[in-house]
Design goal:
Blueprint: H1 30-35, H2 55-64, H3 68-78, H4 81-90, H5 94-102, E1 116-118, H6 119-126, H7 130-142, E2 146-150, E3 153-156, H8 162-175, H9 178-194, H10 198-211, H11 231-235, H12 240-254, E4 259-261, H13 262-271, H14 280-299, E5 303-310, E6 313-320, H15 323-327, H16 341-348, H17 362-379, H18 394-422, E7 468-469, E8 480-481, E9 499-502, E10 563-565
Parallel strand pairs: 6-10
Antiparallel strand pairs: 1-3, 2-3, 4-10, 5-6, 5-9, 7-8
This protein binds a DNA duplex through helix 7, helix 11 and helix 14.
Length: about 600
DNA sequence: TGCTCCCGCCATGGG
DNA sequence: CCCATGGCGGGAGCA
């Protein structure tokens, strides 16, 4: 395939097809023996509040002293009461699912090891539909973190190819002049703030964009050696999610300011499609897909949600993360602290008096689930490619994990509360402010001494605060290793027009209670909602599916920026000329309006405001 | 009310 | 026809 930038990428080489064993962490199974004496408790909906002094109740008591998040994790794990119901729904989120997925694989896989991924196995072990796995895989594919081997089979590359991928994407993005296009769109939107004849102007503007910047079609950007296998994959008509994902990342890579709103992204992406697609349904669909992609990218910690306040109102947004260190300095990546670790450290070890809603701490749930999943794998036969649906025997070990977490938490709380005293975390609502979704503690979680036989990698893409389960070869009992915090990162300044930032108070994405899965949820009426046949999907007119939908008005163009900001997609080179270089005759120079403080200037790496 | 995004229908295309 | 894949948008949940 030939990328738009003219670089010729190597046609499909032979990617060594490793024999069909799914990648599994090489872990011992002694833990199973350790926990073998414990009997698997019966999951119950109604567990008496007062129980006999059993290991379970013991652990419960321990957990009761922990933060709500940990308690939540516990309840999920045990399937206790309504909490379990709520949380099991949270597991469905794409971001969390991606977390769980990523936690299964090392950032930098050993090439000597079989890194195959079997979709069936993954879907089964994560207990999700294959459809969701496809969403994740498509985004990961777009970053060349995985590549397809064959039907149902992928190869895991991890972040090893990320630097190359991002460099390529940036190059393509620059050649596509995305930076200029975004500037035009932003300027256009700004003009509309003053002049509210939005509808017509939008169309006119988009047509202008077509005329000038308009790169119509863009293929999937490949890397040498990471080509796609399997005819059906490449023959699919547009592969929009993969391509969209790449374009989306490109926008971050070339954008100045490094804030990319979803609507701007959607406009650009739509602009590259047929003009006919530019109806509001298309826009809405594009936005939905961008949410999906953004969730995966968030799980990868390449972007991060923040809130942005524009002139027209406060909008949800995303704040970028330290992609450059995460992707470029790959060698040190696994040892490198995460920029967002502070977030979850604070969440996890929040002071008892601090009221927190579960909705604000997906990361904690992610964390716990990642542990559980890892543990499940650990407790499963490690050499068997057999699909693992569930493993009740993991229950004791999960209890041990949670106990370990709680212990660490309890140990940490005193230390953390000390840190809080010196912590500066104003939650400003001032007009030019950015806060990370969650407050961050500067405290550094001490790493427990690794026992011999510890896993050789730390799946950092797991929850920002990553407990890493260690095999129990020589040390009994589980270990949770928390990656230390990152050093403050110097932030480049850049101009943002007309944006203010606020703290959403949300670490990852949204609130917890999602709809139930499959037929159990409130919206489970698939047959009743069966859509009428819509004919060919290639038609430009939007599909008419559920007639009941007519009660809902068609979407109006989202006014919100729904901004995504990246922080280190940029190399210094790409610090754009876009701000000063009109791309075409109709390009309007974008004034550096209302820009006293750049988002990142106002946001140090710990998410606290400089005041 | 609008944002967010889960969910699953069903189109597509290879075998 | 079967199956893997994934486009797509309804609508639930929530702020």
């Amino acid at each position: 395939m030939r990328a738009n930038n003219g670089d010729v990428f190597v046609e499909p080489q032979t990617l060594a097809k490793a024999a069909g064993k799914v990648y599994k962490c090489p872990v011992p199974t002694e833990s199973q023996q350790d926990m073998g004496s414990l009997t698997t408790p019966t999951k119950g909906r109604n567990v008496p509040s007062c129980e006999p002094w059993t290991p379970t109740s013991n652990l419960k008591m321990l957990i009761s002293a922990a933060s709500p998040e940990i308690q939540l994790c516990f309840f999920i794990d045990l399937g206790l009461g309504e909490e379990s119901e709520k949380i099991s729904r949270k597991e469905k989120s794409l971001g969390l699912l991606c977390h769980k997925f990523l936690a299964r694989y090392p950032d930098y896989p050993n090439p000597a090891v079989n890194n195959d991924i079997c979709l069936d196995d993954v879907a089964g072990e994560l207990n999700v539909e294959r459809r969701r796995i496809y969403d994740i895989m498509n985004v990961l594919e777009s970053l060349h973190m995985v590549s397809r081997l064959a039907k149902n089979r992928y190869t895991w590359h991890g972040r090893s190819k990320l630097p190359q991928t991002l460099a390529t994407l940036r190059k393509v993005g620059e050649e596509q002049r995305y930076g200029q296009q975004m500037q035009q769109i932003r300027q256009h939107s700004f003009d509309q703030e003053l002049d509210f004849d939005e509808e017509k102007e939008n169309e006119e503007f988009l047509q202008e964009m077509d005329g000038e910047g308009g790169q119509k079609e863009m293929c999937f950007v490949e890397l040498p050696g990471v080509e796609f296998k399997g005819a059906s994959v490449n023959s699919r008509k547009d592969k929009s999610l993969r391509v969209m994902s790449q374009k989306f990342v490109m926008l971050f890579l070339v954008s100045t300011p490094r804030v990319v709103s979803l609507d701007v992204a959607a406009k650009i992406l739509i602009g590259e499609d047929q003009i006919m697609d530019r109806d509001k349904n298309k826009f809405k669909t594009k936005i939905r897909r961008l949410y999906d992609i953004a969730n995966v990218l968030s799980s990868l910690e390449l972007i991060k949600k923040v809130h942005v306040t524009e002139d027209r109102g406060r909008k949800p947004a995303f704040n970028g993360l330290d992609l450059r260190t995460s992707s470029v300095s790959s060698a040190s990546r696994t040892l490198e602290p995460r920029s967002s670790i502070d977030n979850c450290t604070k969440n996890l070890f929040s002071s008892p008096g601090e009221k927190r809603g579960f909705t604000r701490h997906h990361s904690l749930v992610k964390l716990a689930k990642s542990i559980q999943d890892d543990r499940r794998k650990i407790n499963s036969a490690p050499t068997s490619p057999i699909k693992i649906i569930s493993n009740d025997s993991s229950y004791p070990s999960k209890m041990a994990q949670l106990a370990a977490i709680c212990k660490i938490q309890l140990d940490q709380q005193s230390k953390d509360s000390l840190d809080k005293l010196t912590e500066k975390r104003p939650v400003s609502k001032s007009s030019m402010s950015v806060t990370e979704p969650q407050a961050k503690s500067r405290s550094v979680v001490q790493l427990p001494v690794l026992p011999a036989g510890a896993l050789p990698y730390i799946p950092h893409q797991c929850s920002p605060l990553i407990p890493v389960l260690l095999p129990q070869q020589q040390v009994r009992g589980p270990y949770a290793v928390y990656v230390a915090h990152p050093p403050p990162r110097p932030v480049p300044s850049f101009a943002v027009r007309s944006m203010t930032f606020e703290s959403p108070g949300d670490c990852t994405k949204r609130s917890p209670v999602a709809s139930g899965s499959g037929g159990t949820g409130p919206r489970s009426s698939p047959k009743a909602l069966k859509r009428p046949s819509s004919g060919k999907s290639s038609e430009n007119s939007p599909k008419v599916r559920r007639s009941a939908a007519s009660s809902k008005p068609l979407l109006t163009t989202p006014k919100g920026p729904q901004c995504i900001q990246h922080s280190l997609f940029h190399t210094p080179v790409s610090t754009l000329t876009a701000m000063t270089t009109p791309v075409a005759t109709k390009t309007v120079f974008i004034p550096q309006r209302k820009l006293d403080v750049s988002p990142e200037d106002s946001l140090n790496q710990n998410g606290s405001h400089p005041h």
